[in-house]
Task: inverse folding
């Protein structure tokens, strides 16, 4: 059975065109990609809603995020390439430090192959 994911490209294009047309240029580069990754969705979300959401709304939305394995590995590779600690990555990506620590334990062999 094939797993289907939401068409984030269509969803974010519609949101931008209907509610935030002034942010189209800022998001155009990401929306031109053939397929959006979880990191692309995070960037789009931050670009579009960073200023319009209250702190409480932003925190509530943050609780419902999910990441696929490919996105987790990319986040951890970003951390390794930029020599960042868990606290720095957590503040950049709005992910808890404990989550990053758990990911590192689980995906250690994909980040640091032998």
Result:
């Amino acid at each position: 059975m094939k797993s289907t994911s939401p068409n984030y490209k269509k969803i974010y294009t519609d949101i931008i065109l209907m509610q935030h047309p002034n942010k189209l240029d800022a998001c155009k580069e990401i929306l031109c990609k053939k397929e959006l990754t979880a990191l692309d969705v995070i960037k789009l979300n931050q670009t579009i809603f960073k200023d319009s959401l209250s702190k409480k709304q932003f925190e509530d939305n943050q609780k419902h995020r999910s990441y696929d394995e490919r996105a987790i590995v990319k986040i951890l590779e970003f951390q390794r390439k930029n020599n960042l600690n868990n606290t720095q990555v957590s503040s950049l990506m709005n992910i808890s430090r404990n989550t990053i620590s758990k990911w590192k334990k689980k995906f250690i062999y994909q980040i640091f192959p032998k």
About this structure: The CA atoms of residues 19 and 48 lie 10 Å apart. The chain has eight helices and no strands. The first helix runs from residue 8 to 19.
